[in-house]
Design brief:
- It is an enzyme of class 2 (transferase).
- It comes from Pedobacter xixiisoli.
- It is found in: Cytoplasm.
- It holds the Pfam family NDK.
- The longest helix has 11 residues.
- Helices cover 40% and strands 17% of the residues.
- The protein is α+β, with helices and mostly antiparallel strands.
- The structure holds adenosine-3',5'-cyclic-monophosphate.
- The site of adenosine-3',5'-cyclic-monophosphate has 8 residues, from loops.
- Adenosine-3',5'-cyclic-monophosphate binds next to loops.
Length: 138
């Protein structure tokens, strides 16, 4: 559905103590939390999550980084959620992220870029289902 997206707070932002600030930015921007989980991906699970990028040169680094420490996964709800959330987090490369965006504030590099945001309704559904069962959504 077009009013939901999926996000992860990545290992860099967790390790740097930014969980609270990022969740605060997300809720202040008007997103409602539908599901929320603090967990860690195995390399196998990270590879499965990012399978769409399997042929990309950055795939191995991405998988090892995303399994290097705990993450926060969440399903978020807001009108026009995909686009609104992408605007909130800024460009994939934090060097290109607009002032005030989450990646501009908390990210250091294109790999350690603080947060993930779904790029389509279809992927938001798939990614949310990867982490959350029906009884973990409120
Ligand atoms: P994310 O939105 O989680 O989706 C895939 C991730 O791969 C992306 O954020 C980046 O952290 C990482 N990545 C590394 N290099 C690139 C690249 N050249 N283009 C896109 N994503 C990249």
């Amino acid at each position: 559905s077009t009013n939901r997206t999926f996000t992860m707070i990545k290992p860099d932002a967790v390790a740097n103590g930014h969980i609270g600030s990022i969740v605060n930015d997300i809720t202040k921007a008007g997103f409602k939390i539908i599901a929320l989980k603090y967990t860690k991906l195995s390399a196998e699970k990270a590879g499965e999550f990012y399978a769409v990028h399997k042929e990309r040169p950055f795939y191995n680094d991405l998988v090892s980084f995303m399994s290097s420490g705990p993450i926060v996964a969440a399903i978020l709800e807001k009108d026009n959620a995909i686009e609104e959330f992408r605007n909130l987090i800024g460009a994939t490369n934090p060097a290109e992220a607009a002032e005030g965006t989450i990646r501009q504030k908390y990210a250091k590099s294109i790999d350690a870029n603080a947060v993930h945001g779904s790029d389509s309704d279809e992927n938001a559904q798939i990614e949310g289902d990867f982490f959350f069962s029906a009884d973990e959504r409120f």
